[in-house]
Write a structure and sequence with these properties.
The chain is of the alpha/beta class. Helices cover 38% and strands 16% of the residues. The protein contains twelve helices and 15 strands. The protein has helices at residues 13-22, 53-59, 76-86, 123-142, 172-178, 198-206, 229-239, 251-257, 262-269, 278-283, 293-305, 315-334; strands at 2-6, 26-31, 44-47, 67-70, 93-96, 110-111, 146-151, 154-155, 183-186, 192-193, 196-197, 218-221, 227-228, 246-249, 274-275. The strands form five sheets. Strands 3-2-1-4-5-7-12 form a seven-stranded parallel sheet, sandwiched between helices. A two-stranded parallel sheet has the order 6-15. Strands 8-11 form a two-stranded parallel sheet. Helix 3 runs parallel beside helix 4 (123-142) and helix 7 packs across helix 11 (293-305). The protein starts with a strand and ends with a helix.
């Protein structure tokens, strides 16, 4: 198949890019050329900016595609632009939504694709929900060939997946652990979560491409391994050769000091996330997640340590953590805790 990935070098998409090339597909990446180190051998790169509609149309002129995957659509306006750009030029268009779009709080702890989409805490998720509605309405009205995929927390070499970490410098949490500093865990750390390695996600995702049965449908693709957040942080510590010191702080208290965390906590990681993968497995039986978190995070730690420049530390984030822990201790002392 002739595939177009808009982006294609990000944390999730790079694993899919490698896999589809190994499967013999002709892959084009359309992006701004800023992450050349993550372009897999065999991919053809078209440089351009999808946000500039006129120049994107010119750069992609003369092409038709079996599948278009846009990894970087976040708003309905961006989704509408893709509809106009790819209408009649692709047999399948895959929209990357988010499992954070599912109902918060959940009425049932097991999530299926029919779980309602409703997130009052996170604009990011509400925008993804609006994109889904726009695309499905277009499918019903004109037959636009959309498939929706909802990843949950998916990680790989370049991401140390913690609920509270520096996004720009993810090594920061390992550095903090190794220095013996306490690491913040939201709540009591016993809520359930699902971590998915990007190579496992790639198998399920690639199996949807070019499948007429997937048109007009939505799928989440996650691991079947369910862990508590305490177990996740402990696994990160073990992979780094340390027993981490965990300090548990209520999500509401964290948000009262870090308002920007409301979406990521109340709108996502503070809510247990256990997924039923029956739907993706029925269509893609080869999807059998193989990478347990303890193994995957060891690979991630090794990738960072292989190049010292990857192990940058966000000292501003570190100081922010220290201030929050101190405020929490003061509040406990004042309450007689």
């Amino acid at each position: 198949m002739k595939l177009l990935f808009i982006g294609g070098t990000g944390l999730i998409s790079q694993a899919v890019s490698r896999l589809v090339i190994s499967q013999g597909h002709e892959l084009y990446l359309f992006n701004r050329g800023r992450r050349q180190d993550f372009v897999p051998e065999g991919a053809k790169v078209i440089e351009g900016d999808i946000r500039d509609a006129a120049s994107a149309a010119e750069a992609l002129r003369g092409h038709e595609w079996d599948v278009v995957v846009d990894w970087i659509v976040f708003t309905p306006e961006q989704a509408r632009a893709d509809i106009e750009l790819f209408r009649g030029r692709t047999k399948q268009y895959v929209f990357i939504s988010s499992a954070s779009a599912y109902q918060k709080p959940l009425r049932h702890y097991i999530i299926t694709e029919s779980t309602p989409l409703e997130n009052p805490y996170w604009q990011y998720s509400r925008d993804k929900i609006a994109c889904e509605k726009l695309l499905m309405d277009e499918h019903k009205a004109s037959g636009f060939p959309v498939t929706i995929v909802r990843p949950s927390y998916t990680y790989g070499d370049t991401m140390i997946p913690a609920a509270i970490n520096s996004w720009e410098k993810p090594w920061s949490i390992v550095d903090r652990m190794r220095r013996g500093k306490p690491v913040i865990v939201h709540g009591d750390g016993t809520s359930l979560w699902t971590m998915t390695h990007n190579t496992d996600f790639a198998v399920g995702f690639a199996g949807l491409l070019g499948r007429p049965e997937a048109i007009g449908e939505a799928y989440h693709i996650t691991s079947d391994e369910v862990l508590t957040w305490n177990q996740i942080y402990e696994a990160i510590g073990r992979a780094a050769g340390i027993e981490p010191k965990l300090v548990h702080i209520a999500s509401d208290f964290i948000i009262s000091h870090w308002p920007d965390m409301e979406g990521g906590l109340l709108g996502d990681k503070a809510v247990s996330a256990v997924f039923d993968n029956s739907k993706i497995r029925a269509l893609v039986p080869e999807f059998k997640p193989k990478v347990p978190f303890a193994e995957g995070i060891r690979k991630t730690i090794a990738w960072f340590e292989a190049a010292p420049e990857r192990c940058a530390v966000d000292e501003e984030w570190n100081a922010r953590c220290d201030r929050l822990i101190e405020a929490h201790e003061r509040a406990r002392t004042a309450a007689g805790g």
